[in-house]
Amino acid sequence: xxxxxxxxxxxxxxxxxxxxxxxxxxxxxxxxxxxxxxxxxxxxxxxxxxxxxxxxxxxxxxxxxxxxxxxxxxxxxxxxxxxxxxxxxxxxxxxxxxxxxxxxxxxxxxxxxxxxxxxxxxxxxxxxxxxxxxxxxxxxxxxxxxxxxxxxxxxxxxx
Length: 159
Description:
Layout: H1 4-19, H2 34-46, H3 48-66, H4 73-87, H5 96-118, H6 123-151
């Protein structure tokens, strides 16, 4: 799992990128989701309680800031953070392909909860159109960011 200092560096980097670069990093109308990346790595590093708490707070912040109709964001974040913290730590998350899969699954869980609540009828279309590509894009960006934190900042995942 990641050292706490690594988690803070990653979280800070992702917030900065979300506010700057990610707003321009759109591909086919899809942007990487820095919130999910931070949530996954905090949940993997600190466990299910910290993951659930951070997921709730991030979901609440996004709901408040975006003033979106996605009232399910805190619930989706809480469930996702808990599940990743509880079951994600049971697998070898030190491997980049496994990290990629975990981030992708986190995007999938969050979107299923959000869109099942928001618009169940449109959920299959939304999942195919946005979640699959968005999840893959977010997962690739997340693994690249972890690689950067590990290599450039000198912080690394611990087994």
